[in-house]
Design a protein that fits this description.
482 residues; alpha/beta; Rossmann fold; Spore Coat Polysaccharide Biosynthesis Protein SpsA, Chain A; 2 domains; seven-stranded mixed sheet
Length: 482
């Protein structure tokens, strides 16, 4: 039975009175708990790039919003005293007084925003589902909702800390366990992209707390005990284009026998189809074959031929993607062990909005004989589990060469590449880590993996396996030990 409206009004009035009273003291509480707030801001800065359009709902004194350095930042809070404090501390940002559960307040905001932040706000809401549902109005297809809240496991510790004067006093808040919250997300037509858990020790402890939070707290099993829960969501109601053009990139080195076969087997899909061969210093005439095929199919296919001046598939893919002119970019290995006939599945996943990056997986359907050596199979399984943990999205085959994403999302990954650097000769992890950093929804599509019929593989399982182990450490430092 719904609670009487008067009960909601009474609770909201209590929250308002508490926020007005605490507004002048909030900064001093932040200073008193520097380790907690510094870690929280640091992780939010990892999730939200600089110069984004950011809306902070329940913004308090505006410190978090300011730390994100938005190009356009708007904060909304129920408390006039909090808003007055925020305006005085951060005059470069916009702050508004309002109840974010009021439809009129959300309707007057200048959306869409790139990011919508609710930091400790869901605990104050009368109806979390309805409040989230209204946020579709300020969401575009690329908007991300980021919700931060404390784990219910820490409730007794937090209440004790309040009584001892170690934590800022709190009004009555909602008791939300993660399963309840995930159910509410579904009801509100949002999709969870990833979740993260941080801060096992919310104190500095002469640097020991910081070390524990960076290197021990993120570990599997242990991280479920952390204080801070973060959820990244996207709207399932945001409009998405229904017909897109496609650029298929085919890196090729010593693949002369597969060049024309790729064209003959390539299905027609998308509003327009561009095929880009990028050749990598072959010794078997692959470049000349690419030029011959370009000329032979000039009347029926849009084919570009590029020549790589660097080394490695990653370098080739980055150069070709920079030259791609269509809405969706795909990578198809020139060995054709992944059938080109499957590419429309990747396209459909992007166009339907089910995914923002698609990764092929070779490890679901039975393979042709000799398609993958047993040691390679075991290595792929191992690294898939490790990288699933690192990026907080499920992977079964990180080394499948076939990937697809929109050109605008690739451009966003390229703009943020300085965070990781030029570390990946394969190209697979540059895209996987970049997509995870951009909070893209990643899904896998099973493919039928065939044996190579021309040439030899360029992969060395031992040399490249050692490189993958080094990448695991690299990714842990860049995505977990923040």
């Amino acid at each position: 039975m719904p609670a009487p409206r008067s009960l909601f009004n009474s609770r909201k009035a209590e929250i308002l009175e508490h926020a007005n009273r605490i507004a002048a003291e909030r900064a001093s509480w932040t200073d008193r708990n520097k380790a907690f707030y510094a870690d929280d801001q640091r992780f939010m800065q990892f999730l939200v790039p600089k110069d984004a359009r950011v809306l902070d709902l329940g913004c308090g004194n505006g410190d978090l919003l300011a730390a994100l350095e938005p190009s356009f930042g708007v904060g909304v809070d129920l408390s006039p005293n909090m808003v007055a404090t925020a305006r005085a501390r951060h005059p470069q940002l916009s702050f508004d007084i309002g109840d974010i559960e009021d439809p009129d307040v959300i309707a007057r905001l200048a959306g869409p925003f790139d990011y919508v932040i609710l930091s400790d706000t869901v605990g104050m809401l009368d109806d979390v589902e309805n409040a989230l549902s209204r946020l579709h109005q300020v969401c575009g297809s690329d908007t991300r909702i980021i919700i931060a809240y404390h784990s219910h496991l820490w409730e007794p510790v937090l209440k004790l800390a309040e009584r001892l004067g170690l934590r800022m006093p709190q009004p009555p808040t909602n008791y939300l366990v993660n399963t309840d919250f995930l159910n509410i997300i579904d009801l509100a037509d949002f999709q969870l992209i990833k979740s993260e858990y941080r801060q096992l020790v919310p104190r500095h402890w002469f640097g020991l707390g910081t070390l524990i939070n960076r290197f021990i707290a993120p570990m599997p099993g242990i991280r479920a005990l952390c204080l801070r829960d973060y959820f990244v969501l996207r709207s399932l109601k945001a409009p998405r284009p229904a017909d897109l053009s496609v650029s298929v990139i085919i890196p090729c080195r010593n693949e002369r026998g597969n060049i024309e076969a790729a064209i003959k087997r390539m299905p027609k899909f998308g509003r327009a189809l561009e095929i880009i061969y990028i050749e990598g210093n072959s010794t078997d005439g692959t470049y000349e074959e690419c030029l011959r095929v370009q000329e032979a199919y000039r009347g029926t296919h849009d084919i570009k031929v590029l020549r790589q001046d660097g080394k490695g598939k990653g370098d080739a893919a980055r150069k070709a993607m920079a030259q791609a002119s269509n809405d969706v970019v795909m990578i198809l290995d020139a060995d054709l062990t992944m059938p080109p006939e499957a590419l429309p599945k990747f396209y459909n996943a992007i166009v339907s909005g089910k995914a923002e990056m698609v990764n092929g997986t070779r490890l679901v359907y039975p393979m042709e004989k000799e398609a993958m050596k047993p040691l390679n199979f075991l290595g792929n399984r191992f690294f898939a589990r490790v990288f699933s943990y690192l990026v907080n999205q499920r992977f079964t085959d990180t080394l499948c060469g076939t990937k697809a994403l929109s050109k605008r999302h690739y451009d966003a990954i390229a703009r943020g590449r300085d965070y990781f650097g030029d570390f990946d000769p394969f190209g697979d992890f540059d895209l996987i880590f970049g997509a995870a950093k951009q909070n893209l929804k990643i899904i896998e599509i099973p493919i039928h993996y065939g044996a190579r019929h021309y040439g030899e593989t360029n992969i060395s399982r031992f040399r490249d396996g050692w490189l993958l182990l080094r990448m695991v450490v690299f990714a842990f430092m860049k995505m977990k030990a923040l």
